[in-house]
Protein: PepSY domain-containing protein
Organism: Maritimibacter alkaliphilus HTCC2654
Amino acid sequence: MKKITLTLAALAIAVPAVTFAADDDDASMATMPDLAAGTMLGTDEASIRTALTELGFDVRKIEKEDGRIEAYVVKGKMTAEVYVDPTTGAIVQGGDDD
């Protein structure tokens, strides 16, 4: 009986720790629905920064790279990289692999 109680106590401590650790990871587009592919942000750096700020993101950096505009954003404990097509103003998925 004592062994079962200790096992249950250990599980009760371990499960929240695993869940908390997952909260510290970088966000994917799936965990930040405001950043879904196709979301319209703008065609220049200023309009993209404004749109992301209005969505509640802290924009850390914006730069042009590989024909796209790349923004690094933070919201709470989550961080993400956002790639925007400067022709359409829409978020496109992925980094260099697209």
Observations:
- Residues 5-29 have pLDDT under 50 and may be disordered.
